[in-house]
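Journal club prep, shared notes

We agreed each person brings one worked example of a sequence with its structure written out as tokens. Mine is exo-alpha-sialidase. I'm keeping it raw so we can talk through how to read the token line rather than staring at a rendered picture. Sequence first:
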Amino acid sequence: MFPLATSGSYPDLDSTSEGALPPNPCFRIPALAAFSAASAHPGRLLAAFDIRPDFHDLPGKIALGTRFSDDSGRTWSPLQVLKPARDGWGFGDASLISTSRGEMLALFVASRGRNFWDEAEAGAEWRLLQGHSQDGVTWDFTDLTAQLWDESTGSMFFASGNGIELREARSRGRLLQPIVWRARGSTETLAGVAISDNGGQSWSRPRAAGFRRPVGIPGGDESKVVELPGGDVLLSSRAYPRRRWAISCDGGQSFGSVWSEVADPGCNAGLAVFDDEIILTSLFPPALVEDSAESQPMGTVLCSQNGSRLDPSAGKSSSRQDWSARSNLVLRRGKCSAVDSGKPRLTWSPPRVIDSGQAAYSVAIPLGNHIAIAWERGQNSPYGSLAFTIVDY
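Then the structure, token by token:
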């Protein structure tokens, strides 16, 4: 395990990055991606993260930082500031997308005194930004707000971690970036995707026919998206007490029925596809155990050690106090055998513990014959540091 950044101090800091940084930083919200074979730096790992004055979200004096590795995560570059907090603006919740053209995209939000629940005008105190880089060091930035924000939008942001480029023939080259969207005047959120068919030069939000709201998972939050073998797209959103899922059969233009599967305390997780299997890194507090230690289909009911049941439909449980704790990061492998009525038939491996201590957000990507994972961890809280590891598959 490599400590990407430890809250309270700075790792090696690039000399150009000094200034406009909090003196006692809290590092949060990891993003992770690897440059494609078409890049001048094939295989280069890039990690991005928030540099916060404390653990709180925007608004605030939050900067974005990056580090890169050219040896599969064994060593890392000095910390570089991607976007410093200045002139009242803070930046956060980055997501990285590696394109087949060899470019890296960083999508993130900018805020000046606004949070997600405030009503904002497009481009005023809440903006949606994108960075383009050929090496992870030098960046050009564009403002995507006008492309993705319409009069029905109360607020939205890019879900942190990573987006994807579709590889299957029917939508090859399309970029998908998870978003969290809220209608103007509403408190209900929706987990969806933004789409680009030209390598990130322009973006759009798919909408249901006859409606202004995007398509996706109603009531969803931060999510991850993957392309399944055969080309279907799987969207998975954080939710308590189970993650919410939906399938798209048209490259993210629409999504089918939503269902709840896989225990979750409501925390952003990592999702990837490796060798035709789904890789999920999420929290699974040890106070809860599965009904069976054997691999089993999605939909198995969970119970706590005292026997209290978790009710996915009601979203409540007598074990809420234990279940809400952010700890015990695990990895599961899911096998997809078929898609029936919009719902995949999946079986999951028993959870493999990655970090048995306090932990929170994670992101996972394939890296050669391994899985690369970055996550939040700590001793006194889940936000003490950012860690990186390589897991043999």
